[in-house]
Every structure is written in structure tokens, then in C-alpha cells.
Amino acid sequence: MLYIIGLGLCDETDITVKGLEAIKSCERVYLEAYTSILMVPKEKLEKFYGKELIIADREMVESQSDEILLNANSLNIAFLVVGDPFGATTHTDLMIRARELNIPVTVIHNASIMNAIGACGLQLYNFGQTISIPFFTDTWKPDSFYDRIKENRDLGLHTLCLLDIKVKEQSIENLARGKKIYEPPRYMTINKAIEQLFEIEETRNQKVYTAESLAIGIARLGSSTDQQIKVGTLNQLLSQDFGSPLHSLVIVGSRVHILEIDFMRFFAIDKQSYNEIVKKDYDI
User: Fold this and answer.
1) Is the pLDDT of residue 169 over 80?
2) What is the pLDDT of residue 170?
3) Interatomic CA distance for residues 193 and 199, integer angstroms
4) What is the DSSP secondary structure assignment for residue 155, as one 8-state letter?
5) What string of DSSP letters covers 192-249?
6) What's the rounded Cα separation, in Å, for the pair 34 and 56?
7) 221 assigned to a ligand binding site
8) β-pairing, 214-219 with 247-251?
9) For residue 9, which of 96, 91, 110 has the smallest C-alpha distance?
10) Is 84 annotated as a binding residue?
11) 2-111: which CATH architecture?
12) What pLDDT, on the 0 to 100 scale, is given for residue 173?
């Protein structure tokens, strides 16, 4: 049996009882470590789960799935995913591969950014398409996410922006030379994401958002000690310090419910400024 198990958002105790029982029954336990991270080290997970964890990087999951699935017809194997198992398409690919090999698959769900984002005060059914904002380079600045934001705002819907992380990535030079030398991990901040949003906006004519658009910055969602949620304009959020990863950003839609307005007010960077924006942009 292949178990694909969601770990939740924060630490070792976020796992479900069902997930923990499945882990304890497994011969090998892999920890996916490139689409997201928990806020505790691997060693803390190993102590709590009572199992040694094998780090599964992008190369292993995408190119060496047979190694993960080895003997899964006769043994229990666990593949651990931060958040929920269906939060990244790579995990769907692994499931398809297992089923092609007639390996039974059991998915054990958990909380993810996709549902926990409601903690910011916006109602989940008022969100549109979720987008990912990648790190720009000097020669690569993909902007297809801009059109998704526009589609959401045309419908009045909020946009959850997932921010890029780079774990065990190679430089172009080392990749070209076949050198297994990896760059230090990088995690996109809310500030960097907003800078890139502004950069793309300057090249477009629609003006889907501006520096004065209402937005929400979220850091370390799910943490009981240092979760941060701040509401303000994109320009206000740009100057805020959100601390260590992981960060997410929400661009508030053009149609907002009064309960969302009241809830967000608790997180406003400047309540007077917030009230003025709400009156001007939403007539509330």
C-alpha cells in the first residue's frame, strides 16, 4: 500500500490520528521537501512519528518514482506531504504512477493553505483561481498569473497567491555542466511578490490592481506562536516585515461581503486608512 499523507501546516503535532497510525505501519517513509516546508526540523518529526524519514527532493519524486514505489505491492510505504496531498500536481502524478503499477493507494487528508486561508477573514467561496508567483530572473519573467488575477477580479473574487520556494535548485551554469551543486534555499517574501506584481502591472494596460489595492499578507499560517496576518494596500504591505517563511498573499476581490470587511479590520495595519479604502473602493 502507498499512503499519501498530509501533514498539515505547522509542526509535527498537526498530523491526523489516522495519518500517524498509517506512518507507524510503514516500512519506508518519504518526506516531500520541495513544494512546501513545515516549521520544524526533520528530526523533530522523526521523534514524534517514531520513524526515520527519507527526504524526497524534486529529482527523486519526478524522475525516480520507481524507487519510492519499490515493493509497495507487498509493503506499506508512506509519502508525506506538507499541507494536503492534493496541494501540488506532483503528488497526483505519483498516484497515477502507482495505480498504473496496480499498487493500492490510500490518501489521508489534512489542512492546507487552500482552506486555512479563511483565517484572514475572507470567505472561502469568494475566492477564485489560486495562482503561483515564481521568482523572476534577468531573462525569465513569466506573467500568466496576471490574467488569472484579472479573471478573478472581473468576477469580484479574491486571489490567493502562493509564493515561490527554491529548495535544492541548481544554477543554470551547474545544470549545464552536470555538476550536482545546489543553491541555498530561497523563499519568496510578500515584499518580493508585491515588487514583481508592480513590475508586471507596469507592462500592462488593464490596471487589474494598483499600489492602493486592498490585500492581505499572511506568514506562517497555522503557527500558534508567530502567525502573522496584515491587511492594507499593496503599497502598505510592501514596507512590512513578515519575518521567516512561509509567506502568502491575497489580493482582495472587487466584491466584498460586510462580514469580510468587519473581520479584516482586526488585521488592518492602519484602521483609519483601512476604513477610508473600504469606503472609497467598496462603498461600505
Assistant:
1) no
2) 55
3) 10
4) T
5) HHHHHHHHHHTT-SS----TTSEEEEEESTT-TTT-EEEEEEHHHHHT----SSPEEE
6) 8
7) yes
8) antiparallel
9) 110
10) yes
11) 3-Layer(aba) Sandwich (3.40)
12) 63
**pLDDT above 90 (res 200):** yes
Q: Is 241 annotated as a binding residue?
A: no
pLDDT for res 207? 84
Q: Is 158 annotated as a binding residue?
A: no
The strand ranges marked E within the chain are: 2-6, 28-32, 54-56, 77-81, 105-108, 131-133, 159-163, 165-166, 186-187, 214-219, 228-233, 247-251
Confirm whether residue 160 is marked as ligand binding. no
Which numeric CATH code is attached to 114-281? 3.30.950.10
Same fold, 2-111 and 114-281: no
What is the pLDDT averaged over residues 140-168?
A: 93
The amino acid present at 154, given as its one-letter code, is D
Please check if 113 is assigned to a binding site: yes
Angle (CA) 53-58-64 rounded to 5° is 80
Compute the distance between CA of residue 181 and CA of residue 169 in angstroms, rounded to an integer.
Answer: 8
Separation CA 113–CA 218 (nearest Å): 10
For 110, the grid coordinates are 489534512
Query: Taking the model in full, what pTM does it have?
Result: 0.92
Q: What is the mean pLDDT of the chain?
A: 91
Instruction: For residue 162, say whether it is annotated as part of any ligand binding site.
Output: no
How large is the greatest C-alpha to C-alpha distance in the chain, in angstroms? 63
Q: Is the peptide bond before 246 cis (omega within 30 degrees of 0)?
A: yes
For residues 247 and 215, the answer to whether their CB atoms sit within 8 Å is no
**Structural domain boundaries in the chain:** 2-111, 114-281
> What per-residue confidence (pLDDT) applies to 104?
96
Annotated binding residue 181: no
Q: Comparing 91-100, 233-242, 245-254, 256-265, which segment has the lowest mean pLDDT? A: 91-100
